[in-house]
Predict the structure of Ferredoxin.
Amino acid sequence: MPRNFYIDKYEPTPDLIQKQQFEKAAQIILVSVNKITSNESLILKDSVLMIDLLADIFRIMAKSMGKNFKIDDTCIGCGKCERNCLKQNINYKDKKFSDKCILCTRCIHNCPVNAITYKGKKINQYKVINQIVL
């Protein structure tokens, strides 16, 4: 899937690659749906232990990195960031982030005025070029 986390040294996924990734994801979803509806099992190829280890490392990193998000003075007080935060990590009235961030960057990409910064820098918001409709 396209990279939604392109702060610091990471770059956004180019539009052409995004389109290819969406098309591939749509194919994988259709195959998976067909297997599920046919009572076939879906076998994960990745090691569950490795996935769990990486998830734990990411959780620790996210708490630390999430402290670098701030709401700047362009905030219009709509509260969209607070309502959409999966972890209730944002208090837009106090312009503060707590330590529960999971780095989904939903706050950045959904802010109507792009008022959320990372380390004091504005991040270009992700714009969907194609949507998967099932």
Observations:
- The CA atoms of residues 75 and 115 lie 5 Å apart.
- The beta strands are 69-71, 90-91, 96-97, 116-118, 121-122.
